[in-house]
Design a protein that fits this description.
The protein is of the alpha/beta class. Helices cover 39% and strands 12% of the residues. The protein has a six-stranded mixed β-sheet, with helices on one face. Strands 13-6-11-14 form a four-stranded mixed β-sheet. It is globular, with a radius of gyration of 21 Å.
Length: 428
Amino acid sequence: MKKRLLVPTAAMAALCTLLAGCSGSGQGTQPSETPNASQAAGLSGDLEFMTGAAVDSDLYLKYEELTDAFLAANPDVTIELVPSSTDHEGEVKTRLASGNIPDIWMTHGWSLLRYSEFLTPLQDEKWAADLSPALKPAMVSPEGALYALPIDVDIAGILYNEDVLKAAGWQAKDITTWEAFDKAAADIAASGTTAIYTAGKDRWPTGLFVDWIAPGAFSEEQLKAMSEHKFQREPYQVALDKVAQWRDAGYYNPDYSSATTDDISAALAEGKAGFSFLMNFVAVGAYTYNPDAKVGFMPIPSASGGDPYLVGGEKNALGIWKDTKSPEAAKAYLAFLAQPENLGALAKTAGSAPGLTTATADLGGLQASFDTYVGKVETVPYFDRVYMPNGAWDSIVSTTESVLTKQASVSDALDKVAADFEQLSAGN
């Protein structure tokens, strides 16, 4: 039998309905005519799958487990699982530009707007009829085309350790403004605990400060201007000013330059961090370190005086290269992953609700946060995916990092972002 190969390599309110079943067993219900591994027997072909997941992550391990099950029933199929380095987006861009394109890749929020010209339309697959309504605006074209299987619905806020907050005299529900957040961070730091933990070694998490803070700093008119390729310096500066303010206050972990997202999970689990600006997979990781941890997420304060909000959109979604030499094997593999019990398990591992309505996921310690906020608090799209030009993520990360590490002033970082914005907008 051929085995999988490990290849080392550098409308949101609809969620109310979707998440109502998230407290289920994680098994879901099996709809009629849903393919399973045995029904796919007889397939052949070689597939390369860029997972977008780190090799030691829970999500990658779940992909390994499910891939083994698929291959056991399909011995003439080979699937190479490719773990992500710290720059999945850059890796995908390089592969697409070189023509050395993987058969399947994780589209990390860009199946429609960035990758659709390279991907196989999937709207006629049986599972496509069960797409979460919350994902349709981001993933379905005006013509009805769908280009990826969504593993989960990416909903996120500010991660926190409840016990750390309580020891400092705070509760998450009371932190609804940046002023309150700053006071809570100061009290946590005064207790000797890291207020804000982030991952400099992985680098990309540093850019999330902008994705989290910026949406609440822009007016509707300013967002419209950004969409028209007119950079709005003043509201963007709000995010970098907060990064600099927290740096000067000593709120970040001293080991920032060597810290990884896994280190954040451990710190939250062990009560060594109060907050982190990252997706829910970090909280899932925290519960693997300490099942009794009290880690959740809370809405993000608005810098313009509006209501707190969450951020969300497409993340773990899998597309198939339009010119793959094994299209039937690729579609069968995605159909297998789309089975309710499999998709539910993947979504649970990712720490989010499933991307298809047929699946449920027991989110464990995160369930309370979902029940409290999702569908009740506005969810806005990831800032960079809607208002920044294609290719701007590298600039967002590097400039935010330069402020956090004091290698650049906020003004100089803004100049760099503005110049990159103009250059990239001209090429889009």
